[in-house]
Amino acid sequence: MTSNNLEKNGDQLVLGLPKGSLQEATFRMFEKAGFRIRATSRSYFPSIDDPEIEVILLRAQEIPVYVQNGVLDVGITGHDWICETKADVEEIAELVYAKQGLRPVRWVLAVPMHSDIKSVGDLEGKTLATEAVNLSREYLKTHNVNAKVEFSWGATEAKTPRLVDAIIEITETGSSLKAHSLKIIDTVLHSTTRVIANKALWNAKDDDGNNWKRQKTEELLMLLQGVIVAETKVGLMMNVHTDNLDAILDVLPSMLTPTITPLSNKEWCDVIAMVNKRDIRTLVPKLKAAGAQDIVEYPLNKVIY
């Protein structure tokens, strides 16, 4: 890659974002990171309030190949689609978020509730449908099972038992499969969202030894990862009498030493800490019992380590 390809002046970081089920969650994450993205329902080229970034919306399945080929500089897609397409890309970060929350998704083998198929071995000579054909064939190969794999264009849950014997489908909670009277009999792959980059671009340098697109991506990642960390945390602020301070500090977990600020009344102080959101329902009663007053919980947008 020549230095002209890396010159900041007149150039942009071309960023591929997933269109479809992850789109809303991705836009929301960028908003919290400080980037406003706007797109109409049919737009593949949304606007972003950063002149150094061009956003292109594509199906997550397509993004790895476009990043490999250099059409996109950087993209957000699933680990599953990197495996499915076998794209040769630089995986630079993991962003654990999904359509319904901060969790991995998984590809599962599912069959009708009353199917005679109890395990992957029972698929010998059978037919299954999936959007992830390569993943499914690798999975069957690993288990030494010969079965026909058909590509599904969608509505995969509805294809068994009338059209196929089983399916391999992606799920977050399993609720859609249950709604179609299907049961999960094995997990094929756990997948999280990944940030990937074109290998040539990621390792290139201009004549001064710089790579502004890589630096821009790393700065963007810092903000996005800060948003994801903040989703699991809340801030707590409380008034504490100095006689109770040691007891409060014994109860209070914190990522770092809590901030303690004296108040105008020298017998009181203000204690501020960041704690895990999941702990809050048990922590607040303990803090109250230890003498904390005027306890305030507040949300966090970003946590940068």
Determine the N-to-C terminus distance: 33 Å
CATH topology of the largest domain: D-Maltodextrin-Binding Protein, domain 2
Indicate the structural class: alpha/beta
H/E element sequence: HEHEEEHEHEEEHEEHEEHHEHEEHE
Largest sheet: 5 strands, mixed
Average predicted local confidence, pLDDT: 90
Kindly report the spatial arrangement of strands forming the biggest sheet: 4-1-5-12-6
Number of domains: 3
* Helical coverage, percent range: 25-40%
The name of the CATH superfamily of the largest domain reads Periplasmic binding protein-like II
What is the C-level CATH assignment of the largest domain?
Alpha Beta
Strand proportion: 25-35%
- CATH-level-2 architecture of the largest domain: 3-Layer(aba) Sandwich
- E-strand count: 16
Radius of gyration: 25 Å
Outline the low-pLDDT stretches: 1-10
Morphology: globular
**Count the helices. How many?**
10
Describe the model.
The protein is of the alpha/beta class. The chain has three domains: 3-102 and 193-230, D-Maltodextrin-Binding Protein, domain 2 (3-Layer(aba) Sandwich), CATH 3.40.190.10; 105-191, D-Maltodextrin-Binding Protein, domain 2 (3-Layer(aba) Sandwich); 233-298, Alpha-Beta Plaits (2-Layer Sandwich). It is built from ten helices and 16 strands. It has helices at 3-6, 23-33, 63-68, 79-85, 133-142, 175-179, 199-203, 212-230, 245-251, 280-289, and strands spanning 13-19, 37-38, 47-48, 53-59, 74-78, 90-95, 105-112, 127-130, 148-151, 166-171, 182-191, 193-197, 233-241, 259-262, 268-276, 293-298. The strands form four sheets. The chain has a five-stranded mixed β-sheet. A five-stranded mixed β-sheet has the order 9-8-10-7-11. It has a four-stranded antiparallel β-sheet with strand order 14-15-13-16, covered by helices on one side.
